[in-house]
Design a protein that fits this description.
Layout: H1 5-27, E1 33-34, E2 37-38, H2 40-47, H3 53-56, H4 58-71, H5 93-129
Antiparallel strand pairs: 1-2
Helix pairs in contact: 1-2
């Protein structure tokens, strides 16, 4: 039986996925997780294919579920409590409000700049051609 190119790629990707799971099992590692679920993006990137493969191909999805049952998921890493003097302090609400105000001002100035450039181009056209453009 001859496989079409899509089936060949699927077979190659499935083999890569199986090798990835075998390597994790041999190293005693678990599947990467995010939010208590398997991180499909990390797994797919490690295997060299798109994460949508797990939703589009039932065989990949079933093998992933089986892999989670066999290997388990990584535990969420607890943040280390380190209080060094070089740590940057968290921004307080006043800083956030100032940043928001500056961003709004910047957007306003950019809009005004765009309008002035548009007007300037219209007047440069009038002086170059000698014809007045009526808006």
């Amino acid at each position: 039986m001859t496989l079409n190119p899509f089936q060949q790629v699927s077979a190659e990707n499935y083999a890569k996925f199986e090798q990835y799971l075998d390597r994790l099992k041999a190293a005693g590692l678990k599947l990467p997780s995010r939010g208590g679920k398997v991180n499909k993006t990390a797994v797919a990137t490690a295997c060299g294919f798109n994460r949508e493969t797990f939703t589009q191909n039932e065989r990949f999805h079933e093998r992933l579920v089986q892999g989670v049952a066999d290997l388990g998921l990584e535990e969420k890493k607890a943040p280390e409590e380190v209080s060094e003097p070089n740590d940057t302090p968290k921004r307080d609400t006043a800083d956030k409000a100032r940043i928001t105000q500056l961003e709004q001002h910047l957007a306003s100035v950019r809009s005004e700049n765009y309008e002035l450039r548009r007007r300037l181009a219209r007047y440069e056209h009038a002086t170059a051609t000698g014809k007045r453009v009526i808006p």
